[in-house]
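Supplementary Note 3. Input sequence used for the single-chain structure prediction.
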Amino acid sequence: MANIIDGKVISKQIKDELKEQVACLNRDGKEVCLAVIQVGNDPASTVYVGNKKKACEYIGIKSLAYELPEKTTEAELIELIEKLNKDDNVHGILVQLPVPKHINEETIINAISPSKDVDGFHPSSVGALSIGKKGFVSCTPAGIIQLLKRSGIEISGKECVVVGRSNIVGKPMAMLLLRENGTVTVCHSKTKDLKEVCKRADILVVAIGRPKMIDASYVKEGATVIDVGIHRNENGKLCGDVDYESVEPVAGAITPVPGGVGPMTIAMLMNNCVEAVL
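The predicted structure, written as discrete structure tokens, is reproduced below.
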């Protein structure tokens, strides 16, 4: 039986620590403020934005909500971002992705000041991570590092395999594991013998975007398996990129879906907001 890595419990620990830090900052006359911009009313985005607002409220971070209509132009969105960039009372700016098709996502990410890029998506933030400089780190990979560390899972010297090479998860995940002295392999759709590569992993991080793709035949006995995927199966039930029922008996530790990586993403966003003030 694998040890279940509970993201809800660990994210609550982090949020409680941040709550104390924010209370100290408030006593010093500093108020942490996050501006959240949502363009259109994509239902999943609305849920995520709501969860971010709740987390802000719990920790004591002031949140400004900008709910813009679907037809908002790219120029109008950039004008708002530039206004928030110049506002010294705003410490973090987050544009909820995806944005409508007529707006260029990359242009929007680049418009946010790197000093307020609490999502960690700006090229300056990614560049800082790649050369080991201080900067905001993409929230999901940062959360996974916390899941491993707070569960007592050693990264240094371990064989780490990341399945997926997206800019938001796969690439920064590989760099963070490398920073923790893991030996890292990144796999993707063109990887030959994917199963054999995965079976070498002491720590297997799966962010491939295909429901239940990774079963027990990909996993080494006793490996730690981190499932970043989130999907709905044919019965409408949430599942991940890992076939949990198949893998759980083989793994040494595993994250469930839901309740594993998901809660950590918001906890680390809150952490980045507090870091922006410190």
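The chain has ten helices and eleven strands. The first strand starts at residue 3 and ends at 4.
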